C-alpha cells in the first residue's frame, strides 16, 4: 500500500505498531442499544473501566501469540497503553505472551479515548432526541472540529498526541514500540504521522471502523529520519488463530 514519510531531526522507533484494543463489553452493549433503538447504552461501568469481552480477551491473546512468533529482531520491546481498562488488558495480554508482565506496560493518559462529554453513552437516536441542537452543530462544523460540551474534538486529541510523538523521538529511538489504544487514537496518529489533512483522515474514517486488535504498522525510513507506513487494519493474527474479527465502533457515529 502507499507509504508516507515524516521527517525529523531526532531518532524514531525502529518499528511502531498502533493497535486498537480487543472487543470490549462496551462494543457489545453499544450494538445492542443501537439495534433496539434505545436512547442510552446500558453499561455497568464508567467508560474508563469497561473491560474486554470474552471474545476481546481471545483476540488479545491471538495478538500476543502473533507478536511472540515474530523473528526476535522484529518483536515489540516496549509496550504502551491507554489507561482505559480494555486497552490495558489488551496490552498486558500481549506483554505476558512475550514473557513480560503487566508492570512492563507503560500507561499514558494521553492515549485515552476521545472524551464525549454530555454525549457519553447516548446512541445516535438518543443524541438526536436529547441534543438536537448539538446534532445540528456537529453536522455543520464536522466531527474533526466539533467539541461536545465537556468533551473533545478530534483536533483536541491530535494536540495531545503531538507531545506523544516528541516522547517517542526523544525516549524510544531505535526501539520497537507497540501502542494499544482506541479507534480515534489510531486515526489521529495516522493523521499526524502521514501528514494528512482533515478531509483525508475523515474519508478514511468513513470508509470503515478500525477492527478490534487491528494493527497499523510503521517502520523506520531507510535514512533513519522518519517513519514509513507499512500496513493498516492488519488482522491476520486473529484470522490465523481462528478468532472472529470484530469492527464495532466504541461510540455511535453521531458521537464520534
From TrEMBL:
One of its GO terms (molecular function) is phosphatase activity. GO terms for cellular component: cytoplasm. Keywords: Glycolysis, Isomerase. The keyword Ion transport does not apply. InterPro entries: His_Pase_superF_clade-1 (IPR013078), His_PPase_superfam (IPR029033), PG/BPGM_mutase_AS (IPR001345), PGM_Phosphatase (IPR050275). This is Broad specificity phosphatase PhoE. It comes from Frateuria terrea.
Amino acid at each position: 500500500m502507499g507509504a508516507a514519510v515524516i521527517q525529523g531531526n531526532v531518532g524514531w522507533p525502529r518499528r511502531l505498531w498502533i493497535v486498537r484494543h480487543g472487543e470490549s463489553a462496551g462494543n457489545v452493549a453499544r450494538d445492542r442499544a443501537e439495534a433496539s433503538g434505545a436512547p442510552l447504552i446500558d453499561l455497568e461501568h464508567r467508560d474508563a473501566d469497561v473491560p474486554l469481552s470474552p471474545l476481546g480477551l481471545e483476540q488479545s491473546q491471538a495478538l500476543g501469540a502473533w507478536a511472540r512468533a515474530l523473528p526476535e529482531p522484529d518483536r515489540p520491546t516496549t509496550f504502551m497503553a491507554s489507561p482505559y481498562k480494555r486497552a490495558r488488558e489488551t496490552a498486558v495480554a500481549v506483554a505476558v505472551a512475550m514473557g513480560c508482565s503487566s508492570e512492563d506496560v507503560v500507561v499514558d493518559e494521553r492515549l485515552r479515548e476521545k472524551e464525549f462529554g454530555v454525549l457519553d453513552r447516548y446512541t445516535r437516536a438518543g443524541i438526536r432526541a436529547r441534543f438536537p441542537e448539538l446534532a445540528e452543530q456537529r453536522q455543520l462544523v464536522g466531527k474533526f472540529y466539533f467539541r461536545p460540551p465537556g468533551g473533545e474534538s478530534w483536533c483536541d486529541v491530535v494536540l495531545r498526541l503531538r507531545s506523544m510523538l516528541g516522547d517517542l523521538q526523544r525516549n524510544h529511538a531505535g526501539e520497537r514500540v507497540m501502542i494499544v489504544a482506541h479507534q480515534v487514537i489510531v486515526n489521529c496518529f495516522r493523521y499526524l504521522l502521514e501528514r494528512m489533512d482533515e478531509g483525508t483522515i475523515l474519508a478514511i474514517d468513513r470508509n470503515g471502523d478500525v477492527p478490534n486488535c487491528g494493527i497499523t504498522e510503521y517502520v523506520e525510513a531507510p535514512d533513519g529520519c522518519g517513519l514509513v507506513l507499512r500496513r493498516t487494519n492488519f488482522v491476520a493474527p486473529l484470522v490465523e488463530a481462528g478468532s472472529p474479527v470484530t469492527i464495532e465502533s466504541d461510540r455511535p457515529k453521531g458521537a464520534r
